[in-house]
Amino acid sequence: MEKRTDKNSYTIIFAIAMVLVVGALLAYLASSLKPTITENERLEKQQNILYAMGINENEGTSANFVSTDDAPELFDKYIKQQLVVDYNGQATENDQAYLIDVKKEQAKAKDGGVRQLPLFVGEDEKGKKYYIAPIRGKGLWDAIWAYVAMDENMIVQGAYFDHKGETPGLGANIKQRFFMDDFIGEHLMSNGTFKGINVAKGNADPKNNDKTDNEVDAIAGATITGDGVSAMIRKDLKLYVPYFKNLKQ
Amino acid sequence: MGLLSKKDAALIKDPLADNNPITIQVLGICSALAITAELEASIVMSISVLFVLGVGNVVISLMRNIIPSKIRIIVQLIVVATLVIIVDLVLKAFAYELSKTLSVFVGLIITNCIIMGRFEAFALGNGPWKSFLDGIGNSLGYAVILIIVGFFRELLGSGTLLGIPVLGDPIEKTGLYALGYENNGFMLLSPMALIVVGIIIWIQRTRNKDLVED
Fold it and tell me: How far is residue A91's CA from residue B97's CA, in Å, rounded to a whole number?
């Protein structure tokens, strides 16, 4: 006799029931956890921006954010202005600028629209100013993004890199101190024109003593992720050049 | 082990050596190549697989009499994907930092053939308790290999262990590097993981001739 579980009708009913149960379960879970997750992401953005301007709890060689409890307070304290910049370098103030989704803005630009460029102006205790820009690009497997803090001359003062799904131990190392710290002090401009920072293999300067060569040393085994980092710096930070030119006038 | 009968204990012990999922059953090779450039990633992956395989085996085992045989692979895939997504969502909401570390492993776990392999070979034909032990045993066997490979790749490739430099500083030329030692960047690339796994298989089969096929 044919087993009950071999029947076509049983198979179809089972499949439908399973899809409904699993779908309902996941949908319920996703929607009920969404507010908590969104809040976590908002705090993380604040932590990332603060990290880039050097407000962090780094110990030894590991990168540590300020705690999520302190993040909103510190963010209000150190970030003096939140701006939205346009292609001509004109800035308008917008205190929700840090919630602008860079991914959506990039998609807008691709469809021929005008992209809003968020920029955060931070000031530390010594009165030194930081201009922090969020950028986003592609790694090997998925998205990579960063917050880059610069001074008025577009010299990098700090950077925080992150990724969605780069290979652990290789591309994922862009969020390690040894990689991120290399950017500090690097020039984005070269003789008055924007050049970006290239993540270079076989770079002749592994100790990174030369800060004006527009290069940092690449991570072994992570060529494509490194190229993605170079590309997102070149493409996205270039858009901020008019703002910095205006700043000097 | 007094707690477990001889048969149950074998479920845990066998996969650690003579029935190892990676070196003997050839399951889970892909992730063993992909993420073993660092010891820490190997350990995180091992723990994740331990959890998913332990729980997944029990769920599949409980469902074994009602799963239609014609679509059993799809059902297994749905079970493992659902488990992983639930864990990911809960972590994102309540342990955000941890979820950031683990998120890159999510895709690797769902597609890890060790999980589907054990569902298919064991959980579909055995009770929940035995399946649970089988899941734990196999993920421990998987972990042993991952950690050995991760240890050698990180040590020889980067000169560090768990991110801590143990051989000196390659740029300042201190420690072993003062003697002219260089890191072998080749160890960081996936093919070298295959060679390390190959050496483990070689050693294992030299010690136990029963494992050698004619």
Answer: 34
Residues of A in contact with B92 (CB under 8 A): 33, 37, 40
Share of chain A above pLDDT 90, in %: 45
Query: Residue B3's pLDDT band (boundaries 50, 70, 90)?
Result: low
Domain hosting B202: range is: 23-213
Question: Quick one: which of B16, B17, B10 has its CA closest to B210?
Answer: B17
State whether residue A172 sits within 8 Å of chain B by CB.
Answer: yes
In a domain, B14, yes or no: no
Tell whether B56 is covered by a domain.
yes
If one counts the domains in chain B, the total is 1
Nearest to A44 among B37, B86, B96 (CB): B96
Tally the residues of chain B.
Answer: 214
Query: Which of A19, A26, A40, A201 should be substituted to probe chain B, the one whose Cβ sees the most B Cβ atoms within 10 Å?
Result: A40
**Residues of B at the A interface, defined by Cβ within 8 angstroms:** 34-38, 41, 44-45, 65-71, 74-75, 78, 82, 85-86, 89-90, 92-94, 96, 100, 103-105, 107, 154, 157, 163, 171, 185, 188-189
What does pTM read for this prediction?
Answer: 0.74
In a domain, B30, yes or no: yes
The per-residue pLDDT for B2 is: 56
Residue B163 within any structural domain of the chain: yes
